[in-house]
Amino acid sequence: MPGRCRVSGRSVAQPGQSPAEALQLEADYYGNELQKSEDLKTNACVTLARPLPKVLRDALERVHEEVVARYYGCGLVIPECLSSCRILDLGSGSGRDCYLLSQLVGEQGHVTGIDMTKGQVEVAKKHIGYHMDKFGYQKPNVEFLHGYMEKLGDAGLADESYDIVISNCVINLAPDKKAVLQEAFRVLKPGGEMYFSDVYASQHLSETIRKHRVLWGECLAGALYWKYLYSIAEEVGFSPPCLVTASPITIGNKELEGIIGDCRFVSATFRLFKVPGGSQAGPGQVIYNGGIVGHERELVFDANFTFKEGEVVHVDAEMAAILRSSRFAEEFLIQADRASCCKGLKEKICNPFQLLEQLAAPGPACCPGGTCGPPGCC
């Protein structure tokens, strides 16, 4: 059906490292071998999917230099409409994203970071006082926990306790990716969102790749075949993934290139929503009210939907349900689409490698697929 993302694929156990072996590899690589981002051998864990807007550039300037130097990530995991939100960062590392988010949720919001690498958690904790003074907060609105994203309950994180869960280039390091998404789903409030960047592969990875120590630490050996994300999300209970953006991953190492062969990797950002049962009532017409900080006139929600202030946009049932049930509900005027204009919606872009090709193609910029754009666009 046009306008819907349906990707065939099934969730399977991935060959390679055992859970214990994978966790030890990760701890050693990120705790001992890597001391700064320049030590990485590919751009998988340092690439940004899109330029930082000014509000985030200004916020980043207020983050301690050691925290920034120890940062490893593959995208921008700062969603919109964050005031007073409770946010959980899975694999928070040195805390860079947490300290950015701390400024955006405000003193009434709260950010929790959890990471399995003690050294990284220690770096993040060491600078809490520095950042609260810098932000002018009377008390900390951030905390950092040592723990595992597959077992958030062991760290004391309760059901339905967060508005947003983020992660930045860490789910690929989890042997059991379904467990990570299940835990994220559990701790999210109804209508909550998981907004995350990660590395994805264009095909199934061989066991040789999955067992390669450096490729594992560089976030490539654990990369999910992109179609599986859709299967896992559905199994867990999330809405179909919304592809936000994608950027290519380069490997400047001949030895690693030879091992990888013709497989390609991409850094992609997705958003998943915990839509309450019964919220999906059909397609809709929505009008963005405008005013979200940093997105006052235009909100680029994902690769398929862009909302401009005051303009009517026809959306499918999935997007209508997301907007109705999430923190974005008050930012939109939402009505049922009786005219079924959505029959004219183009097929959604689901494949991050397809999005890369479109972004690299010459010609006019691609318009969002959810705006009933002119023929030939997208």
Question: In percent, how helical is the residue content?
Answer: 25-40%
Question: What is the C-alpha radius of gyration, as a whole number of Å?
Answer: 20 Å
Distance N terminus to C terminus? Answer: 17 Å
Unreliable stretches covering 5 or more consecutive residues: 9-19, 365-378
Count of helical regions:
13
Proportion of beta-strand residues: 15-25%
- Structural category: alpha/beta
Q: Estimate the global geometry from the Cα principal axes.
A: globular
Total strands? 13
Q: Mean pLDDT, as a whole number?
A: 85
Largest sheet: 8 strands, mixed
Order of helices and strands: HHHEHEHHEEHEHHEHEHEEEEEHEH
How would you summarize this macromolecular structure in one to three sentences?
The chain has 378 residues and is an alpha/beta fold.
Your description of this structure?
This protein is an alpha/beta fold. Helix content is 29%, strand content 20%. The strands form 3 sheets. Strands 1, 2, 3, 4, 5, 6, 7 and 8 form an 8-stranded mixed sheet that branches. Strands 12-9-13 form a 3-stranded antiparallel sheet. The protein has a two-stranded antiparallel ribbon with strand order 10-11. The two termini are 17 Å apart. The model is unreliable at 9-19 and 365-378 (pLDDT under 50).
